[in-house]
Amino acid sequence: MVKNLTILFFICFIGCEINSEQLIKNERVNFENIKFNAVSKDLNFNNSEVGDEVDYTKKLISNWFNNNIKIDGIEGNLNVSVDSIKIVKKRKNEYYRFEINLNIKFLLVGYKLTSMDLT
């Protein structure tokens, strides 16, 4: 009897391994449209870097913020602060390669979390 139960559990274990599915899925973040439950939004640049590339990057960030960050709430304010912009310009054969490193903070102020928001 124990022998039969062992074989049965072994077959069940192998069957579960063959048909197993990963429980944790990879998260794909779409930066095209990001929605927040807020009434207003504000963008601040807190960095001290200067230069033409930094100014152009600020314009790109402002354009992304104005067009792709959406708000659709009834309370709260979204404060987005860019704390640092670091640009590395690398010369390749016939072109330049720019690496842009940003430190961006999203702060939602005055929003009350309810139990319906947790689901």
Molecular structure report:
It is a single chain. Helix content is 29%, strand content 34%. The protein has 119 residues and is of the alpha/beta class. It has one domain (33-118). A 3-stranded mixed beta sheet has the order 2-4-5, covered by helices on one side. It has a two-stranded parallel ribbon with strand order 1-3. A hairpin with a 4-residue loop joins strand 4 (77-91) and strand 5. The protein is flat, with a radius of gyration of 25 Å. The mean pLDDT is 78.
- Can you list the strand order of the major beta sheet? 2-4-5
Helix fraction, binned, reads 25-40%
Approximately what portion of the residues adopt beta-strand conformation?
25-35%
> What's the helix-strand series?
HEEHEEE
The geometry reads as: flat
- The Rg value, from CA coordinates, equals 25 Å
Return residue spans where pLDDT drops below 50 for at least 5 consecutive residues.
none
Topology:
Blueprint: H1 2-18, E1 34-36, E2 40-45, H2 52-68, E3 69-71, E4 77-91, E5 96-109
Parallel strand pairs: 1-3, 2-4
Antiparallel strand pairs: 4-5
Which key terms come to mind for this protein?
119 residues; 3-stranded mixed β-sheet; two-stranded parallel ribbon; alpha/beta; 2 helices; single chain
